[in-house]
Amino acid sequence: MGYEVDFLGVGSESKSGDAIAIRFGNLYGRRDEQTVVVIDGGFSNTGTELVEHIRTHFGTDSVDLVISSHPDQDHINGLEVLLNELQVKELWLHQPWLHNHKLEDEFADGRLTDSSLGKRLKQNLERAWSLSKLAKRKGIILKEPFTGLKDRTGSVKVLGPSKSYYESLIPDFDGMPARAERRLVANESLLAQAVRAVKKFFADWGTDHISDDGKTSAKNNSSVITQLIVDGRRLVFTADAGIQALEYAADEIDVCVSGAELKLIQIPHHGSRRNVGPTVLNRLIGSSVVQGAQSGVTAIASTAKAGEPKHPRKSVLNAFLHRGAKVAVTRGNGIRHYHDAPSRASWVSIDTETYHFSYEEEV
After folding, report:
1. pLDDT tier at 185 (50, 70, 90 boundaries)?
2. How far apart are CA 214 and CA 186, in angstroms?
3. Whole-number Cα distances in Å, 187 to 190, 193, 280
4. d(Cα 226, Cα 347) in Å, to the nearest integer?
5. How crowded is residue 120: how many other Cβ atoms within 10 Å of its Cβ?
């Protein structure tokens, strides 16, 4: 049993995104001995690239499972092309408009109803709503990816969010009315409006310059966190999940009895500093190692070609390096991570990240 995981090079300029194509099973055998999975489709123009990638490198027009992690445009927009151009058997997609029971109680405006809020969610998350309708028209199996959901092989499993956690996040999605009670909720669009200065940092090995107090948006925390276990090797895909969501996923890993060893983890939210903290990284990967030691884990950040210094943050890359991970960044180029898989002509080894003892970063 082998696998190949391809992080497509989303973002030719400064806007980062995610599109991941996965194939596992007997990769030297027939198509029916393999499973093809797609996690996110990047921007609209990424969809065509993703379709061609699957045809060229996986040799198929059929996709067993598509997972939409969350409805941000850099993750979901390309999936419409995929569903139209390829034969997709199953789609995992959250449908928040189905979770509007007693939602009206969360808001200050007494004129709101559960029905009107459901309509608002369809309007605000139009891409997700359209994708659900497209799947139904095409007869694609549609499921909501909550904790514990598995694919037909049992190898792919959702680590988070749980249904209850997801529903607790919906009232704080972008575009929702004012809450009945004021809560401190991180809104990245507002945070981005703050005036930022660039500061020079100097780092010592093993000292994290990230915080357990980092906050991200409710929509990011609603991201599907997916696990793939093949041949005793665990691969974890985090999308844009934040610290709280990752903690819940770590709880699921802690009770897993497979004995699988972590081999690959996606660096959340293109390497944003608010999405990971030292404590959750210790749980997911392990504590800091002696400089030069390796943990056997590969960590990959999907970033735009000109995404720096925002994506990825050097402090985040250093935090993964502290824990012995081999760190790679797409920077608008594709990266393939594989095990027991055929070689590919013209694909070459990439240079992984070295430790950043000094760097400039926005503060």
Report:
1. very low
2. 9
3. 5, 10, 21
4. 26
5. 18
pLDDT band at residue 8 under the 50/70/90 scheme = very high
How many whole angstroms separate alpha carbon 269 and alpha carbon 52? 25
Can you list the alpha helix ranges (DSSP code H) found in 39-78?
44-53, 73-76
Structure tokens at 70: 């969350």
Q: How far lies 203's CA from each of 112, 114, 151, 356, in Å?
A: 51, 51, 42, 7
Q: How far is Cα 236 from Cα 110, in angstroms, rounded to an integer?
A: 42
* Cα(363)–Cα(58) distance, integer angstroms: 42
CA angle 238, 242, 247 (to 5 degrees): 85
| The residue count for the chain | 363
**Nearest by Cα to 205 from 105, 94, 290:** 290
**Whether pLDDT at 186 is above 50:** no
d(CA 157, CA 155) in angstroms, rounded, equals: 6
C-alpha radius of gyration, the chain, whole number = 20
pLDDT at 222: 98
Closest CA to 297 of 341, 328, 264: 264
Helix axes 114-124, 126-137, angle to 10 degrees: 90
For the chain, domains (ranges, CATH) are 2-340+351-362 (3.60.15.10)
Mean pLDDT of 116-129: 96
pLDDT at 192 over 60: no
Helix (H) or strand (E) segment spanning residue 337: strand 335-339
* CB distance 301 to 10 below 8 Å: no
